[in-house]
Amino acid sequence: MNAPLNPAASGAAAPREEGAAARRLSFILVFAPFALWIALVILVPQLNLFFLSLREKVGPQVYALGPRNYTELFGESVYVLTLVRTVVMSLLATFATLIIGFPIAYYIAKIARGRARTMLFMSCLLPFWVSELVRVFGWMLILRETGLLSRLLQGLGLVDGPVELLYNDVAVMVGLIYTSMLFMVVPLVSTLDSLDDALVEAGYDLGGNGFVVLWEIVIPHAKPGIVAGAIIVFMLNLGNYLTPTLLGGKNSQWFTAQIYSQFITRFNWESGSAFGFVLLVTSSLIVWLALRASGQTLSGTIGKG
Amino acid sequence: MRDVKGIIVGLLASVMLTAAVPARAETLRLLTWGDYAPEAVIKKFKDATGIDVEVTISNNEDMISKLRATGGAGFDLAQPSQDRILGPQTDFSIYKPMDLSKIKAELFLPELLDASKKNTAIDGKVYGVAHLWGTSGLVVDARKAPDIKSFLDLCKSEYKGRVSMRLKRPALLGMAFALGEDPFAAYGDKAKYQAIIDKAGAALAACKANVKAYWSGSDDLLNMIRSGEVVAAEAWDSTGFKLNAENPDINFVAPSAGALGWIDTFALPAKGKNDDAAYKWINFVMQPEIAAMIVDSAGSFSASKGSDQFVSPKLRAAFQQAFPPEVIAKIKWFPAVPAGLEEMEGKVLDKVAAGN
Amino acid sequence: MANDLECRALVKSYGAFTAVNGVSLAVPKGSFFSILGPSGCGKTSLMRMIAGFIEPTAGEILIGGRSMRGVPPNRRPANMVFQHLALFPMMNVADNIGYGLRRRGMAKAEIARRVGAVLERIDLADSGPKRIDQLSGGQKQRVAIARCMVLEPTVLLLDEPLGALDLKLREHMKVELKQLQHQFGTTFVYITHDQSEALVMSDQVAVMNAGRFEQVGTPEDLYYRPATPFVAGFVGDSHRWGGRVTAQAGSDLRVATSAGLALRATAVVPLAEGAAASVFVRPEAIEVRVADGRSDPAPASADVNVFAGRLESLLFNGANSRAMIRLERGDLIGAVLPQNLLGTRLGEGAAVEIRFAAAATLAFPAGGDAP
């Protein structure tokens, strides 16, 4: 029964393969600009950096291959401490952004309606209409010793003299949270939006209080958004340069400032590249760990968010 | 295949054409410090020569980085400090020698011109000629901090949280001098130099509690001093003169160990395309009246002969207050930095920045 | 018998709009009570007030004899099966069912035992570890009910839970729901816009319209003895005429329709001569005969309406097949197609005669809004 059918089947397969080839070609054509962009803008510079980082300076304009830039970085406790400090502060700032952003996102997604919703969303977006530099200067005007907040506190009689609120880790945190809030709120709103109100009501109806409903229903539902937002915000914090440099105190060294000073102040591109690579590997590692711990995949979170 | 080749050739040709187009209007691409090329001077230069000037504001480190990135291309004239030419030139070959015959030497103060020639010479070739000079020392609000005379005074406990510095080599070296060392004399001896800057670094770290914030741009510092948040700072004299014009209580104070003197130069980037325009600019801005306009704008002193007559009286008064002849005599001029020292300094400064 | 649920003069207003307007009801223990009404009639607001999601503007709700004023939904002895079930997709079946028990701080082993028992009762004994999206529509339905029943609520509220199911499954679930209710013996309050769901399952049905209860009664009451024209029109099929009372003797009326038809009807509420009336008759109350001239037409008596007409079309739908008959006066009337006519080759256009008893012809004062 089957035998006579086979030639017909294979005959039909040939044009189908041709069609597939044509589709593949058109896919390659469509994909080519993107691949080129990725290669030129991301891959090639990274590889270049990597090779630079393996160059050891022997004398003026003489270089050799070797790991000295890395051993120097890890041999100098100042640099390692700065890296650890930057990672820890970035994680803290990410967590704080989540804690502050979650209620905002919940309000936008579930409670606010119509105009208020748009307004709230816009107000999250508003800071991004000006450059980061202007935003940071705004905070400097508010937090400095002769600034708005200090005067307000004095005016209210809460403090005796002027207080310096700038140049410390808290100021850096405030700046980081402010700068990255939107990137937390947007993925959260989009996942919370898809949460059926009935699930929340059912959570209450079956005996849960607000905390239980949040913990067992809302947060598990929002997990992809939480992870996506946290990854984006963490990367932004880790890679931020302006905010920690301008708001930070004399002790608030950020790792990116180290990279900057290696590249720009020291003209030591080799060691700057090594610093950059260490930062890249560190952040990738932490994101990977976070994804593993939360049982999410990159495509399932960033892709969705 | 031939079609593809044709397309590529055509593309290349069009790219080269577009690249060649901007040559029609002559421009000078100037890499310099803020206030070194005021609008009015640029306009006069254009009127006189028909050349447009494109200014990119920068500082020593940034100039070196920018030129290193391109191998010395992208700019026709740069203005690094004379002490920052030798090292980077040895490491990166970012400048080309100057043709001194194209420079009108009679416009320059001879001692400054000679000093810069000597300090920027490599293998008998000169890489920079003096333009503006100034010093690095202290800016003090005399009413709020009357007794600050030295770098060590910045670290007095009564000024806790009230002083500022720029965490760069002038602060480190200024501290070394204040501690009685002579780092310049140790430039040739790396081990000795390391010991000196380690000592100065430790002193800066110990002084950290007094520092409100390390400044990075002069605008930061201006704001902190104007608002009274900072009463004394390690700073350039030009910053002091600028503030003096607003508030006579504030002025530059040369540290008792001597102010650190620098000379900013004109230098030709290795792959500059318009050397003629660069020489024209040098000879133009060194004319006394023009040089005085730049002095007024920058607050630094010019190597132009006779320019001081045209400088505004206010600036001259501030200068005379800060720089009586015996102070000028004590200025420690930055010698050319040998390659490798900046890296050592960098590590010490990193430790100061991170340490607590 | 004690009432598990009682509402007293409940009112819910949103600004000028009154969604629920003075509703009172009493649901005896263990009964199946339905609230039937078109969408927008206020039944959802009523249910959400009982569940505690919204506060009544006025009135009182008692569950198990206890006032629910100020009691939040998670403390009410009433649980709800949501329209789209609202099973928690982030938990498996067993965790869904155990959710409420965990809230009561019950020991893990006890929770597992109870969840296992209820899963067995709903024939899903092995499905505890399954994800929600691995269940069929009917299984989800049962899990949603089990999730509430395991808490042994005084009242189970069901918000049109069959609406999302396909027709076949819906028919099946109607029977199954009724069985489950028998099995658990819990008081069910069921809201729906589907009269057949309400009629099949309920002990008592309240017909709701525009924020009020039109009538509360057994399904038979509603069907055969509608109290208002709305109920007569909404529950079951019926043909409706508008007309005027021309003669009245007790509840016996004669009504002239606007098309000029003279009807004998029975007044449900007293109607005076000259009053405008709405007259309803059900399709199955209409008898269709072939007017072939051979069978002797029964004389029109005082309690039967007889009209001649022509068969315009036959709408075949098995046991629900209809004959559409055009009367001489122009009215188009649907009647249940009698079995004896089903097989015959009754041609369209054939002359027929229809009869319906005056007792089955119900007259209401006109003006009541009928659907």
TrEMBL record, chain A:
Domain annotation ABC transmembrane type-1: ranges: 83-290
InterPro entries to which the protein is assigned, alphabetical: MetI-like (IPR000515), MetI-like_sf (IPR035906)
Subcellular location: Cell membrane
Keywords assigned: Cell membrane, Membrane, Transmembrane, Transmembrane helix, Transport
Major localisation: membrane
GO biological process, alphabetically ordered: transmembrane transport
Membrane-spanning residues: 25-44, 87-108, 120-142, 170-189, 225-242, 273-291
Any single Gene Ontology cellular-component annotation: plasma membrane
SUPFAM superfamilies xrefs: MetI-like
Keyword NADP on entry: no
Membrane topology, record value: Multi-pass membrane protein
Family in the record: Belongs to the binding-protein-dependent transport system permease family. CysTW subfamily.
PANTHER family according to UniProt: INNER MEMBRANE ABC TRANSPORTER PERMEASE PROTEIN YDCU-RELATED, INNER MEMBRANE ABC TRANSPORTER PERMEASE PROTEIN YDCU-RELATED-RELATED
Protein name: Spermidine/putrescine transport system permease protein
Lineage, broadest ranks: Bacteria, Pseudomonadati, Pseudomonadota, Alphaproteobacteria, Hyphomicrobiales
From TrEMBL, chain B:
Keyword Signal: yes
Signal sequence, start to end: 1-25
Entry GO MF terms: polyamine binding
Localization annotation: Periplasm
A Pfam family per the record: SBP_bac_8
UniProt keywords, alphabetically: Periplasm, Signal, Transport
Membrane-crossing segments per the record: none
Source taxon at top rank: Bacteria
GO CC, alphabetical: periplasmic space
One Gene Ontology term from the biological process aspect of the record: polyamine transport
InterPro entries: SBP, Sperm_putr-bd
Protein name per the record: Spermidine/putrescine transport system substrate-binding protein
UniProtKB/TrEMBL annotation, chain C:
Compartments (UniProt record): Cell inner membrane
SMART domains: AAA (SM00382)
Membrane topology, record value: Peripheral membrane protein
MF (Gene Ontology): ABC-type transporter activity; ATP binding; ATP hydrolysis activity
UniProt domain ABC transporter: residue ranges: 5-235
GO CC terms: ATP-binding cassette (ABC) transporter complex
PROSITE patterns the UniProt entry points to: ABC_TRANSPORTER_1 (PS00211), ABC_TRANSPORTER_2 (PS50893)
Ranges in coiled-coil conformation: none
SUPFAM superfamilies hit by this protein: MOP-like, P-loop containing nucleoside triphosphate hydrolases
Major localization class: membrane
Alphabetically ordered keywords of this record: ATP-binding, Nucleotide-binding, Transport
PANTHER family per record: SPERMIDINE/PUTRESCINE IMPORT ATP-BINDING PROTEIN POTA, SPERMIDINE_PUTRESCINE IMPORT ATP-BINDING PROTEIN POTA
Family: Belongs to the ABC transporter superfamily.
Name of the protein described by the UniProt record: Spermidine/putrescine transport system ATP-binding protein
